[in-house]
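Model it.
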Amino acid sequence: MTAAVAVACGLALLGVPVFVACSYLGGLALLSRPLPPPVAPSPATLRFDVVVPAHDEAAGIGATVKSLLALDYPSSLFRVVVVADNCADATAEKAREAGATVLERADAERRGKGFALAHAFEWSLGQGTADACVVVDADTVVSKNLLSAYAARLARGATAMQAHYGVANPLASWRTRLMRIALAMFHQVRSTARERLGVSCGLRGNGMCFSTALLREVPHDAFSLVEDLEYGIRIGRRGHRVWWVGEADVLGEMVSGEAASVSQRRRWEHGRAEMVKLHGWPLLSEALKKRDGLLLDLAMDVLVPPLSRVVMAAGAGLVASWALAFFFPSPAGLAPLSLFTACVTALGLYVGAGWLHSGTGLRGLLDLAFAPAYVAWKVALAVRGRAGQKPQTWVRTTREGETRP
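Modeled.
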């Protein structure tokens, strides 16, 4: 075996996991055509508790509560419940003034969104009046059809649901405009395709809905940095899938400045890395043993790296395989070249589908010119994060217009 053939074989072998990841994303892109929504039952009868976990959100909690109370659903059938968790400001008072039911929680040891949600769900179950609990972040605006969209699926047997989670402030900066496209890929493309396949669309932390029957069966004991991903895996192992609610929106404020973006991204990246260590390969093994498509898809969702890393790996592999084919032409060199060309093609389909779903038009295409810088920033952040301090639970992200402490 010549040196060139050995390098070609090694490059092709290294490209196999990249090809698997890219094929998964490309396949989802091909299946991401929007689905027709079900019709909500009439008259409405299901009752909801809309839970808003809040940590030092006095500045904006009132507006959030008022927007939720204006939902297009009978006011007698839902209530807004704000969990003022370890707050040092007037979050509780502002939420009450706006019309919310307020649960105040103070626990210096058990801090974080997961603990706040567990507290609210336990309280709701104790009240015994709600059929389902909805989770909406404190910096979010929602579409008025949110509860009726959930009700339509609850009537059809859904136990867990996820609404479309998008960007409320896409024009704040190039970062937020790219985030709109990125979230369209991660939420709309993936979720729509997974719904079409009849597997779990995944939980995204904001815009989640759980039936109280599910919360009794599988208590929300998820307290990691990515409690949504953790709980989605737990209910998946119990045979419950998350239904996609694509016609209803929860739009969260995304930070435009680099300092706050670094903090937020580091928590997300670290949290997902922990889930890969704890659940990735065990989920895959369990799925193959049970021949369970729902668990297999959950395993793929956990194991596929962030898009920035997949893009870097596919791009580097394509450059290397082109160089190999140019300087050392041989039939063996076609294998890695074909493999990485397929990877880049699949990623192109995935990004293109995300752009279409984002509705950003020509401006979105222009914004994608910033994508290489964004990818490089995320990769550099991930490398620095491995050597830095681990993120803490519930580190409040600085909102737009606020001064960073």
